[in-house]
Amino acid sequence: MTDKRVTIVTGHYGSGKTEFSVNLAINLIKKNENVSIADLDIVNTYFRTRERREFLESLGIHVCDSSVKTPALDLPAIPAEVMGIIQNKSAKAVLDIGGDAVGARVLARFTPLVEKTEHDLLFVINANRPETQTAEDVIEYIRAIEETSGLKVTGLVNTTHLLKDTSLEDVERGHKLAKAVYELTGIPIAYEVAIESVAAQIEDEEIKEKLFPIKMYMREDWMS
């Protein structure tokens, strides 16, 4: 699991990227006094970290998002505050980035700063998404993000899910896909993500080695 000061999370929309980012920040706050999460995904306007601002800040996590302070609006206004988060050597930071060319261009704005600090760029894989069901498709997305941002993906995150209907088989299928990508690229699997009820069922030792159980914070109960 990553222990770098800055963790950048990217992946196709609907992959579970923001859910993973929020859970990662919550996990970090249990170990560090200073944790920030920056919502820089201007691609997917549906599930946003800002919607859980009050909850996250109650845990001691600083939330940074669009400089337009209106939850109902989603404008590509990236605050200068993000630069401070990246440069703050006393803090851990999670950056939630959109997973297509537009999202990668947002990341590229911060590449010179990111390159100067210890960081991980994680690519989230959901094998149930039609756009990322083969290793070749995943690698195509990874290469596009790397080319546009100027940064290299350092780790893979298996977040294969079907929301609350996620099964053990979903996680195992995602593991096989992530492993295939690793074998073709050499990019290691950093996390195997599963909601807690499914995580408790996992027996595969390879998955358990990188297992990261999560709670669902970004979806209301009725969104099952």
Topology:
Layout lengths: L5 E6 L5 H13 L5 E6 L12 H6 L2 E4 L16 H7 L4 E6 L3 H8 L2 H4 L4 E7 L9 H15 L5 E4 L9 H18 L3 E7 H4 L5 H5 L1 E4 L10
Parallel strand pairs: 1-4, 1-5, 2-3, 2-4, 5-6, 6-7, 7-8
Helix pairs in contact: 4-6, 6-7
Strand order of the main beta sheet, please?
3-2-4-1-5-6-7-8
Percentage of residues in strands: 15-25%
Structural class: alpha/beta
- The secondary-structure element order is EHEHEHEHHEHEHEHHE
The proportion of residues forming helix, as a percent range, comes to: 25-40%
Main beta sheet, described?
Answer: 8 strands, parallel
Extended strand count: 8
Distinct helical segment count: 9
Radius of gyration: 16 Å
Average pLDDT works out at: 84
Query: Outline, from the CA principal axes?
Result: globular
CA(first)-CA(last) distance: 29 Å
Low-confidence stretches: 67-76, 220-224
What does this 3D model show about the protein?
The protein has helices at 17-29, 53-58, 81-87, 101-108, 111-114, 135-149, 168-185, 196-199, 205-209, and strands at residues 6-11, 35-40, 61-64, 92-97, 119-125, 155-158, 189-195, 211-214. With 224 residues, it is α/β, with parallel strands linked by helices. Helix 7 (168-185) links the parallel strand 6 (155-158) and strand 7 (189-195). Helix 6 packs across helix 7 (168-185).
List keywords for this structure.
20% strand, 9 helices, 224 residues, alpha/beta, 8-stranded parallel β-sheet
Characterize this entry briefly.
This protein is of the alpha/beta class. It is built from nine helices and eight strands.
